Amino acid sequence: MNPSPSAKASSTKMEWLAGVVQAGPIVLGYIPIGLAFGVLAQKAGISVLNTLLMSLLVYAGSSQLIAVGLFASRSPALSVVLTTFVVNLRHVLLSAALSPFLERWRKREIAAFAYQLTDETFAVHAARFASGTPSKAEILTTNVTAQTAWVFGSWLGVVVGQSISDVKPLALDYVLPAMFIALMVLQTQDCVQVGVALATGALSVGLLLMGVGQWNVIAATLIGATIGVMFEAFEIWIKKRSC
């Protein structure tokens, strides 16, 4: 027997509510970071409309904060585009990890999901998919709720930024490094990873002191990642030799 329309509506509402609940921890983080982005964007001379459009269309926290810093330093447009592109390449890996769970989705549904995929929503969805397959309504509601919080935080930051004459005492420019440090700490699992992370940080500072400029982080990241892959390959080779 097919469920009645009222039962279907009630089930859909529960799925929406579950999606909002799943996004709760993300919302708590997105509003303050979005606020920081809005303040920095306002101080960089970016209009309110363009600030909100960036959060609506680009919707990539780390890249948006990087872009604002590059805009503030009057970096060339090509540098802004290439830098944010490289930073967002990780989304290829995130989407590839979740793609097996979306095989039965329609293309427009996958497009909507991919558009709102972030590091934080990826973590939530990966955990949910591991314990079962939630409904599409729940998954998409989680994404919409998260982005709504980000856009609201951005708008709030623009409003607050108009009443702040100097953002340096607030140390808002440290939001992006702090966020990446937190992500790095959560992902380091052994001494090799810690060593590679510290070496990459030292290399980035060294390149900056050598006058590399805005590209120091990208260059250090590529070199550090290469070293990390070589270490892992060497460890695998040692284990095979000892077997």
What would you report as the Rg, rounded to the nearest angstrom? 21 Å
Query: What level of helicity do the residues show?
Result: over 70%
Shape: flat
Main beta sheet, described?
Answer: none
The first-to-last residue Cα distance is 59 Å
Computed structural class? mainly alpha
Could you tell me the strand content as a percent range?
under 5%
How many beta-strand runs?
0
Mean pLDDT: 82
Report on the architecture of this protein:
With 243 residues, the chain is mainly alpha-helical. It folds into two domains: 5-172, no CATH class; 188-243. The protein is 77% helix and 0% strand. The chain is built from twelve helices and no strands. The chain has helices spanning 5-22, 24-43, 48-58, 61-72, 77-87, 90-98, 107-115, 119-130, 136-161, 175-187, 191-209, 216-242. The termini are far apart. The mean pLDDT is 82.
Draw up the topology in text.
Blueprint: H1 5-22, H2 24-43, H3 48-58, H4 61-72, H5 77-87, H6 90-98, H7 107-115, H8 119-130, H9 136-161, H10 175-187, H11 191-209, H12 216-242
